[in-house]
Amino acid sequence: MSNVTKQQFKRVWFITGASRGLGALMAKAALADGNAVVATGRNVAAIAERLGESSALLPVALDVTDREQVKAAVEAAVEKFGRIDVLINNAGFGLLAAVEESSDADVRKIYETNVFGLLSVTRAVLPVMRKQRSGHVINISSIVGYQAAAGVGVYSSTKFAVEGITEALHAELKPLGIHATLVEPGFFRTDFLDTSSLLVGKEIIDDYAETSGKLRDLAAVINHNQPGDPEKLATALVKLVDVQTPPLRLPLGTDTLKAIAEKNAYVTTETQTWKPLSESTDFPA
């Protein structure tokens, strides 16, 4: 028998990685805006402690790399609230290491969560949204999901994958009344650079001291001194969900805007420089 909550909520949000950091702040902002929230994470006790008790809140234990847990979490959300209007794929972590310094185990671990976990959750939620003919999939990318940087190459690659997946989803889901958006945060003042959210490669190669090594040193300096305000990011997501025609990409932070402008300018210049060789590879018209 269905236990669907009869109370009217603005929307039903399903958030991964909601036990702390940006995920918890997103959940808090969504609740304050009159939404119901399915807040998921590996530490369900931390979710309840952080967000309190509410008829609008359903804390659910979820490791996004466990497909059975993913299926159960989505079923619990629909059983409780009857629908899922917003999916925020927020769960993930970083890897600080040059590409050559990145171990096979660390690379596989980060892909399991940042890419395969996101895909697993998305594929589980989309049948619900397709049945509704409405919904909004929001995938949390990164400043380095648009412009890769030395020292976070593997992490960047997972976010590049998320960007490609979301661009395709945007095209596939639009005719079904479902939106897909990439959110690209810059450096926000969270615990992302703590060991709880960031793997640091154990192998250090001296030849990378001036590239990835500098970022490793910088991370310790800027941790908890980042320019972005995480509460304002959470508020921005509430505004994003409210707009009638949401964007494919939403950069957040002046640092992300700067990185995007710099990359776009670089790509334009390089494309023009190599245009004759690029054009030479077609069959004659």
Q: Return the structural class.
A: alpha/beta
Radius of gyration: 20 Å
Strand segment tally:
9
Beta-strand percentage? 15-25%
Return the domain count.
1
- Output the helix-strand order: EHEHEHEEHEHEEHHEHH
What is the name of the CATH superfamily? NAD(P)-binding Rossmann-like Domain
Low-confidence stretches: none
- Give the CA-CA distance, first to last residue: 66 Å
Biggest sheet, strands in spatial order? Answer: 3-2-1-4-6-7-9
From the coordinates shown, what is the CATH architecture? 3-Layer(aba) Sandwich
| Principal-axis shape | globular
What is CATH's topology name? Rossmann fold
Q: Helical region count?
A: 9
**Looking at the chains present, what oligomeric state does this protein adopt?**
single chain
Largest sheet: 7 strands, parallel
**Average of per-residue pLDDT values:** 92
Assigned CATH class: Alpha Beta
